[in-house]
Structure formats: C-alpha cells, structure tokens
Fold Putative dehydrogenase.
Amino acid sequence: MINTSILRYSIILLVSLKMVAQEEPIKLGVIGLNHGHVGWILSRESKGDVEMVGIVETNRDLAERLSKQYNFPLDMVYSTMEEMITAVRPEAVAGFGNIYDHLAIVETCAPKGIHVMVEKPMAVSLEHAKKMETLATKHNIHLLTNYETSWYPTNLRAYELYKEGTIGGLRKVIVRDGHKGPKKINVSAEFLEFLTDPILNGGGAIMDFGCYGANLMTWLQDGKKPTSVTAVTQQLQPENNPKVDDDATIILTYDNAMAILEPSWNWPIGRKDMEIYGETGAIYADNRHDLRLRISEGYDGFSENVFRLEERTPPYDEPFALFASVIRGDTKLSPYDPYSLENNMITMEILDAAVKSAKSKKTIKINN
C-alpha cells in the first residue's frame, strides 16, 4: 500500500515542476534582420514569456548596426540556422528575413520540432505554402503567420458585431491597406531590396498588402473560399519599384457577397482599414482603435454609434505573447483565426490566384 504522505508529496512535486516549466520563457531564435518589423522583437521588453537566445544574419554590417541600436550582443549572431540551433537550442523561431526564405526556415526547423512564426504573407507562392504546411503537419509544429491587423481591437469588434447579426447578411467587404511606398517612407536599404524583388517578395503591393484583406476575409467567412478572384495591378512609381507592381485591386466573389481588396504603395496617407456592409447596416473599422456602426434608416438615413476601443487583452495584443501562449498550450487558436495555418493556406490560394489573374488579365475560378 502506497504511503499517503509520499503520494501527496509526489503530487505536489509534479504540480510544482509543471508550474516552474510553464513559467520558463520560450527560447526564441530570430532568423534574419532585414525585415522592417524585426524591431518588434528587438525592442520588446522582457515579460517572462519569451527569451531571444540567438539570431541568424549573414549581413554583418546590418547586425552591427542593429546591435548598437537595440543593444544586443554580437556574439548571439550566427551565420546559419544550423549553427544557431546547435548552439542555443531554441524551442521556436521567428522569421524576419525575405518572404522567399520562409520555406527554408520551416524545412530546417520543422524536422527538429522547432515551432515557427513568420511575418505576413506566409510564403511567396501557394507552392511554397503547401510544402510548409506538409512539413508543419508531419512534424507536429505550430506554424503561425503574423499580421499586425490581427491585434486590432476594431477588427475583432467588427467581426463580433457581424457574427452577432447586427448588420444582417453579409453583402460587401472593402479592405484598404498600404502607404506611400517603401522608398517614400524610407524603409532600410535591406528591407527595400527584397520588398521590390519579385522573387524574394513574390510580387509588390499585391503580396505585401493584399495578404491583409485576404486574411481578414477568410476569417470573416469562417474559412469559406471565394468562387473567383479577379485582380488588376499597376506600376505607378516605376522609378521606385521597377520590378514589381505598386498598386492593385483584387475582387473576390462569394455565393452571396463580394470583397474588394485595395493594396497599394500609392496611398498618400498610410492606412489599414476595413468596411463591412450587410443588409441592414455597415461597420467601419477606421483604424486600430476607431470603429463606427451605422444602422440603416430609410433611403439614405442611418443611426450611428462611434467606438474608441482599448487594446486587446494579452496574449492577443502582440505576436510574441500569443506565439508563446500557443506553444505552451495555454491558448488554442479558434478555427480560421488570422494567425492560423488553415486561414493562411486559403489566404495564399487567394494571393496566388490574384497574381495569376493580374498577369493573365483573366478571372481565376477557385475550387471549393
């Protein structure tokens, strides 16, 4: 017969060990430093959930410059993923290089059981995305894609209002994203180099900002794919973006609704906004914090509620907290969550069709 005191002590010890393990920060490796969003992790204050343990960057000048700016030691910078993984054994990595390299990150990390988060879009092509999905599924790792708009409280509230039936059945969604252009907003030379490369970025504005609308629409539609994709691209700044498009319009048709995505590097004012039109009203997510709800009254009248929303609660307020929470098992992403693999596979299918449509000047049908 087992001594009850020993049994009680064993249970307490197991619970204590589990709590300690949960409190240990996730060891995170950073792959690449040339993405302009890398400052999010380099400047992130310690919250006890994530510890940056190593960096992979072949551009020594870039590494030295950012080391001085963000005060990280150069001895944590490695030339290859294999060197970094062997030296510091990360549990997870975040990709902050060009989009083409996302596949190589998953190819290296997935077989080792290392979880991966990449910046949007998930990949440069549907072909790359399918290979990434296969590896993530085979090796049972989390593969997340980070979108800034996923943290917006306005997008969450717009989603909730729509799902609550506040504006009736969905009819049209318009998503506008972009800015004046990478060169005009003075991104770093390293960031500009791959953003304007059709191989390394998969395209120009159509990929860089078209992914936001495709991602949000897939979320709103609970993973339902469009029936067709039609896209038109232009190059309005050939002097700044000689190899890629810098303006696009993408039309998605669904059985009872339509979405118009307007990704551009030609907006005079930077923006990330969404309009959702239903049968009885409209929701305007004007930016991260400001939302308007209009309910139809007569022909052109309406009642309006205006909201100023606070930041979302952790871990949904920024990418690394969410990544750590998902890895620990504390958070389970809802079906077709903007970060989720299943959402981003459909997002990539939409982008792939949009690029093909723009090149062929034809509407591309999507198989559901």
About this structure: The chain has two domains: 4-148, 150-310+339-365. Residues 4-23 form the longest helix (20 residues). Residues 15-21 have pLDDT under 50 and may be disordered. The radius of gyration is 22 Å.
